[in-house]
Amino acid sequence: MKHDTEFGEMGHELGRDGVERLVDHFEEIRAHERRRIELTNEGPIAGLEAEIAMWAEEDDRLGEQLRLASPPGNKRSRRINAWFAGIVVLVLTVAEFFFSLLAFNPFRFGWKSYLYCIGIAIVSPFCIEKCLQEWNCRRLLKSLAAVAGIAAVTSLVSLALVRGDLFAQEFKDVQAQAIVIDGSQPAPQNSDNFYGETIPVLQLAMAFLALAMALGSGLALHDVKRCAIDSETDADSLAQRRRAVRQQMASLCARRIDLSNEGVIFEARVQRDFHRSLLTHAVRKSLAKMLVVAVCVLLPALRAVRACLQPLDLVVAIDLSASVASRGPDGKTDFAKNVAAITQLLGTVPAGSCVTVIGVTGASFAEPDILLAANISADPGYFGERLVAAHRQLVGAWQARAAHLAPNARRTDILGALLVAGQLFEETPDSRRKVLVIYSDMRQDTRELDLEKSGAVASRIGLQKAPKSVSLADIRGTHVYVLGADAYGESPATWEALRRFWKTYFQTAGADLEKYSVLRDASPF
Question: Does the CA dihedral 403-408-414-419 come out positive or negative?
Answer without folding.
Answer: negative
